[in-house]
Design a protein that fits this description.
It is a single chain. By secondary structure, the chain is mostly helical. About 65% of the residues lie in helices and about 0% in strands. The longest helix has 25 residues.
Length: about 220
């Protein structure tokens, strides 16, 4: 007589609901905007209000301020990589792709997040180092392609672009200087025009690398 074999129970995988994911994204977007406008110490309930969610929803997703800051930083870095991937997918003008990437990256307001990275993160945290490396590699690939076509002057490096985006894109968080935003893309374009080959002048020093920035 055969014994019945018990059918293993199928374990259900719990996935976040679509509305829960939307709430989380709204919180991150609102936090990024308010960190830029007011700095990283903006009250969390104000962030929840701008996101259109309750305080309980915010704390359910982010138990403390550091967790929210980390999510915002990684969101910006990931979006910057996405802009880079879109630029690399373009098959037309290589320098034009670089221009579009730089302008899109500036709109991510990376410079305003720099103080938050230094105050919230372990500088050598593997997740942060991996995210930075992804950004660095994709910028280098975009620049190498523009150099290979003879459109980008050869004496500039990834660090030069990173410095320009950080310094020209947005004022430091909480400086109440957002009215300067209207000049951002104008001045970035002046910088980009100066990177075109053939170079009209000799730059002092050498091309800035990311290692140079890390040691600064």
């Amino acid at each position: 007589m055969q014994t019945a074999t018990a059918t293993p129970a199928v374990r259900k995988v719990t996935r976040p609901r679509a509305d829960a994911l939307r709430n989380r994204e709204r919180i991150v977007v609102a936090a990024r905007e308010m960190f830029v406008e007011f700095g990283p110490d903006v009250p969390l309930d104000e962030i929840a209000r701008r996101a259109g969610v309750g305080n309980a929803t915010l704390y359910r997703n982010f138990p403390d301020r550091d967790a929210l800051v980390r999510e915002v930083v990684f969101s910006v870095l990931d979006r910057t990589v996405e802009h880079g991937q879109a630029a690399l997918a373009e098959t037309g003008d290589a320098f034009g792709a670089l221009e579009r990437f730089v302008h899109a990256s500036a709109d991510e307001r990376i410079s305003a997040l720099c103080p938050m990275i230094s105050s919230t993160f372990d500088e050598h945290h593997p997740d942060l180092e991996a995210a930075r490396e992804r950004v660095e590699l994709i910028i280098e690939e975009i620049m190498d392609r523009a150099k290979a076509t003879g459109q980008l002057r050869p004496d500039v490096g990834v660090g030069d672009v990173m410095i320009a985006v950080a310094q020209l894109s947005r004022p430091p968080a909480g400086t109440a200087c957002l009215n300067a935003d209207r000049f951002v893309h104008r001045h970035l374009q002046l910088f980009l025009d100066g990177m075109r080959a053939p170079a009209p002048s000799v730059l002092p020093g050498s091309a800035v690398t990311m290692e140079d920035l890390r040691q600064a």
